[in-house]
Amino acid sequence: MASASLQFFAFILALFGVFGDITATLLPNWKVNADVGSNIITAITQMQGLWMDCTWYSTGMFSCTLKYSVLSLPVYIQAARTTMVLSCILSAFGICITTVGMKCTKLGGDSDSKSHACFAGGVCFILAGIFGLVPTSWYTREIIANFLDQTIPESSKHEPGGAVYTGFISAGFLLIAGVIFCTSCFKKQQGAWIYPPKQHHFPSTEQESDTGYNLKDYV
């Protein structure tokens, strides 16, 4: 029962990780630049994401521009696009597989098959967490490097946006969920190897008759 509850807790963490991963991939605020000017039409917030760049004006207007050209983008944005999409796909696969392999569900067949499915789902979550952690770390590193560069003007410097923090938290949830699923299945298999079932040997009746005394020969 404890293992089933732990798997259910890991499944909830994985769900939060999947939703956060998809949200971070689609959000346009991976880096944010705030400029307040004297003109009323001056943009007060500029956001850049993986797929689009958005601008918020002081009048309340909001406009976005899609990034159509892939080759014109920096390398870290291209890598972030690829790895975040892979993270979303792997985490979705992990949700489907662990749904079959969890102990609290009636899918997946016998206990060995469910254990293998649960382990495979945990591996998917771990890979998804790694794929989500790499682009957010790389993106944050580029933002900090540009912010500390003295040759770049202040108006062109940015700070990490909410999508980066969402990606970090989601990757952490996926990693924790994957480790819980893998260790719960590993402990079960390891216990089967370390503590094999005891086999009880019962002596046959012939051996007892040979070694014992026959009371019929005595008066």
Automatic annotation (TrEMBL):
Coiled coil residues, start to end: none
Alphabetically ordered keywords of this record: Cell junction, Cell membrane, Membrane, Signal, Tight junction, Transmembrane, Transmembrane helix
Signal sequence bounds: 1-20
Gene3D superfamilies xrefs: 1.20.140.150
Membrane-crossing residue ranges in chain numbering: 84-105, 117-139, 163-186
Pfam families membership: PMP22_Claudin
Membrane topology: Multi-pass membrane protein
Claim: Membrane is one of the keywords in the record: yes
Location of the protein in the cell: Cell junction, Tight junction; Cell membrane
Domain of life: Eukaryota
PROSITE patterns xrefs: CLAUDIN
Entry's family note: Belongs to the claudin family.
Record's function text: Claudins function as major constituents of the tight junction complexes that regulate the permeability of epithelia.
Protein name stated in the entry: Claudin
Organism in which the protein naturally occurs: Nycticryphes semicollaris
